[in-house]
User: Fold Organic solute transporter subunit beta from Aptenodytes forsteri.
Amino acid sequence: RYFPAALASTHVYDHTAGNMTLALGIGQEELEELLWFFRREDPSTWNYSVLALSFVALILGLLLLAINIVRNRKRKIHVYREAVQTTQQAELEAKQALMPVQEEYSPAELRKQEPVLQDQRSGEVVVHWKDGTVTSLYT
Assistant:
């Protein structure tokens, strides 16, 4: 509590000066010399150094902001492409589930099934089962 009073004036009362020397570990003469040095020092170098430091901090902040913007854009584009790809795969799987799988059968079996399909009348509902049998829905 006595330190601001010591900085404000070089003429300090004896009881506060005694406490200051005990608290700081320096003598009254050294304290007056330091106070005189800091009073007559030119603050322009300090002001310029703080100004330069603030510009460096501003440039660093803008650089980090730019890096963050670029990464967020890349992440959003990547997520969008994955979403489009998964929806396309889901649509393809849904289309393949609706279409009968003809790859398991030989071409000879396909030729056998073709005359059966040609013999049917128009308007008749035919069901193709997964095991390969073809039956009409209504007899």
